[in-house]
User: Fold these one by one.
Assistant:
Number 1:
Amino acid sequence: MNEWLSKIDAALIGSITEAVIYFIVGLILARMANRGVKQWSKHRFDLHQQLLMGRIVTYLVLLVFVVMGLNAVGFNLGVLIGAAGILTVAIGFASQTSASNIISGLFLVAERPFSVGDLIRVGTTTGEVLSIDLLSVKLRTFDNLFVRIPNETLIKSEVTTLTRFPIRRIDLAIGVAYKEDIKKVRKVLERVADANPLCLDEPKPIFVFLGFGESSLDMQFSVWVKREKFLDLKNSIHEEIKEAFDDDGIEIPFPHRSLYAGSVTEPFPIRVVADSEQRDMP
């Protein structure tokens, strides 16, 4: 009896050891396969597709060696596959949101509205895309926060890719006093754009007179910049415009309020009422 038990224990230990070896070999080969796929696809696909292909290959290699390890221990793979199928159906009914996110993730992979490393804006959240997974997209915001956005939300929302194109436009809202010459203001703005090395010569800056505001002549001045220099130009050009306006005597007004009664040229009629007279009033 003891001899029989010792044989069973030896066989069980040997099976477990074989399974552990399969798992270790599987991990090593999965990492090697992941690196090989990344090297092969480095100059053929973008970063997002490289990551996706690497993960698929890694999971497939691990799955093969996990099955081999379970087979070595003595698991009945037929029963295991059947149980996995039943479990998959149960999880599918219980996690419809996850299934929706997976399907949305496939649409994102096919449509490719953005890639890893792009800057995107979703609602009020703006950040750099760290990864695009089957369930969600991970972002890092400008203040170094980690944000996870479900794929279903991205499919249903308006997504703005800020780094899709190599250049961007900055629209500056500018108001000057009514006494100012619009042509002079336009020349000053164009001079500021010409002097700033970050402003692109092509496309040319755009000047638009928007109309008559409550206390100012409203206009828009738009300049083009390389996307990586967007924040640098946006921070510097406002200061340069203010300095140029001060040098040329152009007034940037603040809101004024004027009240009139009757004729626009006559001031308010004001009469001081004494206390005694006010008491005699009915």
Number 2:
Amino acid sequence: MRAVFLAAGYGTRLDRDLQDDESGQYSHLVGTPKPLLPVGGLPLVTHWIRAFDQVPKITSVVVVVNDLHKPRYEAWAEGLTRKVGIVSDGSRSNEERSGAVACMMIGCEGEQDDTLFVAGDTLLPKDFSLNTLVDKFESLRAHDEKACVVLSAPVAEENVSKHGIIEVGEGDRVINFLEKPDPQDTTSRLQCPCVYLMSSGSLQHLKDFLEETRTKPLSCRDAPGLFVGVLIQRAPVFAHHVTHRYDVGGLLSYLECCRDFLQA
């Protein structure tokens, strides 16, 4: 199994918040990629590397970055005890970015393994067990080799329109995906952060999606949830529920993540 960590974004909203912060307390973080932001004394991405280390089935880790920040990630990786591949999408600005779904494909090129995709702006509570997620995936995959698992977490009513929302049916199967819907458009209050475990047999759908949207605007293939909306029509996709998800979007959510993660 391969783990692909998506870190090619430019964090434009966070940078804007940092530059607008009149206190100057966080000015040293301007320009820092979100996955390298310190949380509890470690870069956010390092918490995921430690989680990957606890799962024997994960035999390789790839971090997809951009060219602008690639040297910073290479320097970070040198301090790790496990080997981590650093690959770039080739962009040097937000306007040149490939989009999250294309970065998913970049991260899993080569051998077709079962693949865990994790977005670089996401952190989960300390009691989250990645092994439990993998065990659920393995159990489902034993019945259908194309089975996939996506994470779901509760979302407050006022934040429904800020997230990709999934509707879940019998047996935790995902039956619908809505990208940032109005609250009245769905009764579901389950967000679907980008923590996806895809079987090797379903990775072809990723290639197909990128080919089908190749000539469309980037907005049609940027958010990874847009791919989930198509995937559920082509493969069995199941939800794995967690109690909380830290979404590092802007300065406020980053500070909330730091505070809550330390207190957990």
Number 3:
Amino acid sequence: MGILVENIVVYIAGWVIKKAIDQLRCEDCRISLVSDTSSESSVHYQAALKFLSMKNWSSKLHVPSDGVIAILLKAEQHLRDLSSMKYVNPKISLVRLQYLVLRDVDPDVLCLHSHVMDTAQGIDNHSYDLVRLLVKIYFNVRYYHVARLHTQKFQARSVRQKLNKLVLFKGQ
């Protein structure tokens, strides 16, 4: 994956965090999603954070933690492996993507050491739930983007769409 794709994924991660925070009730989980901007915690993803730091001139954007970046980069990698940007692949499912990301990322990627043990219910805990939620939100964003590109490709051939104003106003 190139640096441009990584920068875009990190930029989208801020929006994914915003949506995830709205759905979460646990304060420890909310804190694990956002990076502490005062420290240099994102040492691994400095190159990917360049675009976000450039766009964050008003300091209102959410800066994702290293764990969120790792999760979303894995999700993007698997989406690119499973699909094509030219069409919407109906074989791609949210559950399959969540499984692939959970298989590939470290179980403690969001640094919720003791919180995971406190919230364990059977085989589920807040760490797995957070990964599933982040992948779900990211999957919806990317899936709708690919669907929109697919629709635009078909609409580009339509004469009515191309000459919309000319057709509506009859050349006046």
Number 4:
Amino acid sequence: MIIVNCSHQQFRTRTPGCYAIVVSTENITLNWYFGNNRSMLLSNCIFRMGGAAALLSNRRADTGRPKYRLLHTVRTHKGAADECYGCVYQHEDGTGRVGVSQTRELMAVARDVLKTNITTLGPLVLPLSEQLKFLRSLVLRRVLRSHSVRTYIPDLPTTRNSRLPSS
């Protein structure tokens, strides 16, 4: 995501007609754990080897060709919080074998990061009508302290036709 964001910034400041190739790989080879600690064995099951690549362009001639169009990039950094910083870390087990350990807080941290990203992206991609419905439910719940009103969850299928690019 950082590379995509850098490419996006470069496209804004550089002359038109530029290309960027973004390649993302996942390689667990250096962090493969051979011990018996369960919290360290979990990463062997979740992470494997794989990759993806994308060709980005800001050429006017390429305007009608892409399947997707990058409109917004959002990065969330939660490393300053202790529970976020320590939920995945590399260390040695009791026998001296190095592995990546994951704590129980990982799911809560992931939920918090996802919530922050969606909150940041919501105003960028949701149409005004959906934003107003959400704001109305928020005001009723928080200001009037009406617990009978449920928080409005935006209808994402209808937003596909609004401010998101077509595929």
